[in-house]
Amino acid sequence: MSLHLHDITLTYPDGDTRLTALDRVTLHVPKGSLTAVVGPSGSGKSSLLAVAATLITPDAGTVTIDGTTTTGMTRGELTTLRRDTIGIVFQQPNLLPSLTAAEQLQVMAQLDGRSATKARSRALQLLDAVGLAAQAKRRPHQLSGGQRQRINIARALMNDPTVLLVDEPTSALDHERGAAIIDLITGLTRQQAAATVLVTHDRTHLTAVDQITEVQDGRLTVPALMR
């Protein structure tokens, strides 16, 4: 179980020309490891995450997830691949205000056809894993920002993904809560044996990651193995 991006090039229309967002990017993330992708705004971090999530098809290069290369897949096949193998933690939790913490997670499993009983059992298990078992019946307005982000992470794990993609999870949190969220993601990466990519502009919480890669003008530079 791993994520491999090979020689990825991605461009966008820019008037009469095209703007290069990713320039021959190669990145390998083994299972059970956490890779942090850092860089300033506009450097290509979000584009890299979108390609890894199969939300954008690159101009050139290949994305391989668990040995399956996505080149040539139909839109429906890519949707199934995302649902079955990829968990995405968005920058903002975007929780549904009318649902409890447990129900936020249950919806994800029920969309995948899982029974209500199994969905609730899995939801409660994950809430316990992120330290929110006691908050299962609370709605978003009754939770702190850090607690909402933990639900966001648990929701991404609901269908047992082998690849976890995390977009700026600490941007709206103070230093202490941000550190706790990074610790949680690190622990869950090991526990779930997921290949995790963490996109962030904040380098202060990255002492426990396995690899740091910096994006500059669409290119990956200065990779540094942390262990």
Automatic annotation (TrEMBL):
<dbReference type="GO" id="GO:0022857">
    <property type="term" value="F:transmembrane transporter activity"/>
</dbReference>
<dbReference type="InterPro" id="IPR015854">
    <property type="entry name" value="ABC_transpr_LolD-like"/>
</dbReference>
<keyword id="KW-0813">Transport</keyword>
<keyword id="KW-0067">ATP-binding</keyword>
<dbReference type="InterPro" id="IPR003593">
    <property type="entry name" value="AAA+_ATPase"/>
</dbReference>
<dbReference type="GO" id="GO:0005886">
    <property type="term" value="C:plasma membrane"/>
</dbReference>
<dbReference type="InterPro" id="IPR003439">
    <property type="entry name" value="ABC_transporter-like_ATP-bd"/>
</dbReference>
<dbReference type="GO" id="GO:0005524">
    <property type="term" value="F:ATP binding"/>
</dbReference>
<dbReference type="GO" id="GO:0016887">
    <property type="term" value="F:ATP hydrolysis activity"/>
</dbReference>
<dbReference type="InterPro" id="IPR027417">
    <property type="entry name" value="P-loop_NTPase"/>
</dbReference>
<dbReference type="InterPro" id="IPR017871">
    <property type="entry name" value="ABC_transporter-like_CS"/>
</dbReference>
<protein>
    <submittedName>
        <fullName>Putative ABC transport system ATP-binding protein</fullName>
    </submittedName>
</protein>
<dbReference type="InterPro" id="IPR017911">
    <property type="entry name" value="MacB-like_ATP-bd"/>
</dbReference>
<keyword id="KW-0547">Nucleotide-binding</keyword>
<dbReference type="Pfam" id="PF00005">
    <property type="entry name" value="ABC_tran"/>
</dbReference>
